[in-house]
Every structure is written in C-alpha cells, then in structure tokens.
Amino acid sequence: MTRTLVRAALLVLLTAVLLAGQAPSPAPADAALAEANRRILTEIAEHSEQLQNLEYLSDRIGPRLTGSENLKRANEWTAQRFRDYGLVNVHLESWTIAHSWKRGWARARVVEPAEHRLAAEAAGWSPNSAGALRGPLVYVKAEKKEELEPYRGKLRGALVITTEPEPRQPIEERPLLPRPPQPERDFAARRRFSQEREDFFVQEGVVGLLRDSDKGFGLFNMSSVGRDYSPAKLPTAFLTPESYDLLWRLRKNDQPMTVELEIGGGEFSAGPVEVYNTVAEIPGSEKRDEVVILGAHLDSWDLGTGATDNGTGTSVLLEAARVLRQLDLKPRRTLRFVLFSGEEQGLNGSRAYVEAHKEEMAKVSAVLVHDSGTGRVETIALQGNSQVYDIVSRLVRPLRQMLNMEELSLRTISGSDHTSFNRVGVPGFFCQQERATYNQTHHSQADTFDKVIREDLLNGAQVLAVFAYNVAQLDDLLPRKPAPPPPQP
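Structure (tokenized):
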C-alpha cells in the first residue's frame, strides 16, 4: 500500500471515530422515560399483588350486582386498597338507580307433547310470575317493529321465544384467533326495538318470555330485561342451550307445544337506590388539571363471582395504581383510576361519571379500559381515531418490544365504559385481548376465580401502567377525532 493510500485510510478511520463520538445519544427525557418503563414492567413482574386482590374480591366479597350490598362492600374495599397504595382524593361518587333487584328462583318445563324439565334462571330485573304460567310456545321472528304485525291477534296466553339457536360448537373447537372484524353494533337501536317488542307483547297478551343463553355445557348467559333498573313488564327467564335447543326441536313442523314458567322470590327495592363509582388519583406534577384515566367496571352479574367479568380488570387497575405510586414516578399529568358500576346494564356508571364531570372532559387526554377477562392484551383498539396512531405507537413501543404486543389497531369495539367517553369526543381506547374462555364463561355461573391466568393478569397491568404514564408525559393532550360534518338540510 502506498503512503498516500495509508494516509487516506487513516483519514477515513479518524473521521469515522470522530463522527461516532458526535453521534446523538438519547435525549435525557427519552432516557428517563425508558428507565421509568423498565421499572414499571419489572416491578409488576416481580412483586404483583393482583392474585391476592382478585381472590379476595371474587371469593370473600363475591358477585357484585349493581344495587347490591356486595357491590357497596366492593366499592369500600377497593377505595381502601387505593388508600393502602398511597393514592389521594380517594372517594365514592354516587349516582342513582330506580330499583335494586335480588334474584329468587325459576322453574320451567315442557308439558306437551312430552314432559321435560327445563333449566331456567330469571333474567335480570324480571318480575315474579303470578303462579305458574302455562301456555302455547310461539316463535316470533322479527327484527323491526313492522315485522311484528303478522303476529297481531295470535299471541294471547302464549309464552314466546324470539331467536333461533346459534350453531353449537364444543369449546375446544371454537377458534380463538384470528377473529374477523365485526361491524359495530347499534346498541341504541336494538334497545329501542326491544322495548317496542315488549310493549307489543304486553298489548297482545303474552304471559312470559324464554331466552337462549347461547353458551354450552349447561351454562347460563345473564343480562337485564328491565328498563333503566325498573321491573320488566313480562316474566322472563334464560334457558341453558340444552333446554332451549330442546324447545326448538320439539316445535319442528309447527307442532303444538305447551310450556310452563314460574318465577318467584325475586325482590325489588321500594324506591331509588344510590350506587357508586370508586375513584382515586396520583396527582400530576406539572399539568395537574389535565388527566389520563384508567378504567374497569367493578359490578358483575350474580350467578358466578364476577372473577373475569370484570374482577380481572379491577385487579389490573389496582395493580397499575400500586406500581405507579410505589415507584414515585411523578407523572406530569394527573392519573385517575375509576372503577365504574352499572356497566352490565348499559354502561350506566361511566355515563353518569361523564355527565357529572362534563366540564372536565376537554382536559382528559385519554381513557383506557380493560374488560375482556383474563386473556393477555394483544393490542390497543384506537376506536377509529387515526390521528393518534403515530403518537400512541411511539408510546407503546416498549410494550411491543418487551411484551410482544401487536401493532395498534384502529378497530372500534363497543360495549364497555370507554364508549361513554368517545360519545363526548374524549379519546377512549380499549384493551383488545385474547379471549381465553371469556365468551364461554362471562355472565354465567362459571365466571369464577379458577379461570384466571396469572401471567396474563401481569400483562394487563403492565400495559395499563406504561400506557398511562407515557401519555401523562406528553407535551400536549392527545388529539380528538375530527368533528363529524354537519347534517345536510
């Protein structure tokens, strides 16, 4: 090699060394954020208290129907746990329901063409029957008000079913992933038609309703039939899939059938009842009036113990609060933790919360809700808010790297408390989770502590804690969705 080439090579090497020395190092703020994220993930992985909290909530307190004494006990217990963890402004925020309801008993059977006992439970807020209701079984197929007209004059004294059985698959054969995107359901329209149909049935002299649980293996699938926590107009019972399928087979070829339903022992409160959301905070160090909210619902149905719907979300929220306070990370914005009630009857607790805090909504940067059981968080559903995609993608990069979380989703998922915030323009997001056994067990007598997967609970708390802290550290609030165009005249 000539001397000139040697000099050239040395110059290139020296330049490379100098440039390497001048390469930008991570900004102090970025490095501090990364270190905070590492500490959060490690603390939850090594010292989580989720299982203890969830076992106490599920087994020592039990089912938490909105308006029940058990739910009030759960409100008070979760408030104390927040205080134990050092949070401030811990309090219960009240709202009111028309009536509480306590379950009694239900009996149902086929009388003709052959006698069969049916497995039945009263639907939520169903009235008791005036003795045993016996009548013909009639299938009413209608999805719109006008489709009820052909049944006018044909339903007096009948017990009615309104749905065909879904195809039944054994649990082990039900595909969990991938899940095809589902269109957003118009819950308001469905609720309106349900009320119109109930009014039609009352006018036509229907005596009772029987509903399909659509699960399997003798499980019920509970929901409410009362309007805004008032007694329904007709006695209504859920049947196990096995019993409902029997009715469907017996009515083949429109053969006459006689069935019997009796519901008793149910109790309604004499008047309105106060219920509560549990609220706690970690105050912001710089932008205290701006808020990041983590949410889950504390109420449950009453056949099981509400372990995965939504004791899991409650335990995830408590753990996120514990670690963020214990590590003393001093978020720039206030972190608020809200355990809503009344979710199972129509997101009522979160709607009451939004109404009570409507003047603060412009200062809420984001809401993230955990409410799909014990499965790990696959990703965060951004509810179609494409404006936040790049920002939130950067914020959750540690979760993708360390927890193998998938890319963010723009999917819209309704049916939980984030929806109440989206309705007023607040960026409300939802944890999209692996289903585990959620579809089979939620709202049923099998929703119990033994279904819980510990590692997935840790994952949920890690996702919520990192998300909330990183959003709290942003310079600005997350952008809202563009306002919808004004309606055309």
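The longest helix spans residues 3-22. The chain has a mean pLDDT of 90.
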